[in-house]
Amino acid sequence: MSSRQGGPGLRRWASPALVVAAVGGAAGVVAAQHRMVRRALRAAHEGRPGAELELPHDVVHHDIVTDDGATIRVVERGHGPTLLLLHGVGLSTGIWVHQFNDMADRHRVVAVDLRGHGCSTTGARPLGLEVMADDVVAVVEALDLRGCLLVGHSMGGMVALVLMQNLLEEDRRSRFEGLAVVSSAAGPFVTLPGLKSLTTLGVPLWSRLALSAEEAGAWAAPGRDLRWWAARLAFGADPVPAQVRLVERMLEATPAGTLGRLLPLLIGVDLSARLLDVEVPALVVVGDHDRLTPPRYARRLAHALPRGQLVELPRCGHMPMLERRREFSRLLDEFCAKLA
């Protein structure tokens, strides 16, 4: 009898108690990870290697105006065979800082701020891989670049594939000697029925909500934490804190509208149908610790490209140009030598 009388009372206070405990536990987790991020950012600031992660002072800047009014910022340094570098989503030309420092004595190193990133504006056309590929063609024509090795990282690799698929054969042969696709994929990423549509609808909504919360000041600290965790996820084991901070700052500088438009497009991308059209020699590079575009996508891409060659870097994440500075530059040098 006593247990029956105590049961409802127990139930009356147990549920609120569980809710309070759950909320308290979640708050504790959030507070703990916030402290972890703050410690990591302090380590990045204290351990920052000075000018090592800053572009050289003698880089040359170009602003290329497109037909729809966008301004595309281009940075270059050095002389020799041209490396044309395209960064990933949320990044900018600064991600190639080591290549500007290490390779400009033997190459013309040219990097593009893709539309909506860095110092490049958006213009009237909507953001997408096709329009960014057109922007790169405009840069190539404006600077009269020939015999380039086109290097695309992550989203930049997808832009490079679209460019190669769309370019006329004679233009492709005169402008580009080869292609290097780094930490990227041709897709498809989404194969479950309906999931692609759900993702396409959901990601922009999440982006708008996050932007509204951030503008209202309600998401300031969590927003910073999310950017840091996104940056950290891009690296493999034991990353250099200053490099994580560099990526985090680029993500912070990227307009939310740019990310909101591009993320669903990238999740739903599928360039696999026309890979046979990419007939130039192609180097596919991936880190075996890449959690954003895992090696299976690189293997699939290298196998599908008519002249694809795969290189997997051990204990490397999504950022080989930073994590494997010397080895990555050597790979590009050796590939350029083969092309010559």
What letter string, H or E per element, gives the SSE order? HEEEHEHEHHEHHHHEHEHH
Overall body shape: globular
**What name does CATH use for the topology of the domain at 56-190 and 260-339?**
Rossmann fold
CATH class of the domain at 56-190 and 260-339: Alpha Beta
Low-confidence stretches: 1-6, 17-34, 218-222
CATH-assigned homologous superfamily of the domain at 56-190 and 260-339: Alpha/Beta hydrolase fold, catalytic domain
CATH architecture of the domain at 56-190 and 260-339: 3-Layer(aba) Sandwich
Which structural class do the helices and strands define? alpha/beta
Portion in beta strands: 5-15%
Query: What's the gyration radius in Å?
Result: 23 Å
Main beta sheet strand tally, sense and closure: 8 strands, mixed
Q: In whole angstroms, how far apart are the ends?
A: 91 Å
Question: Kindly state the mean pLDDT as a whole number?
Answer: 84
Range of helix content:
40-55%
The number of E-state strands comes to 8
Give the helix tally.
12
Strand arrangement, largest sheet?
A: 1-2-4-3-5-6-7-8
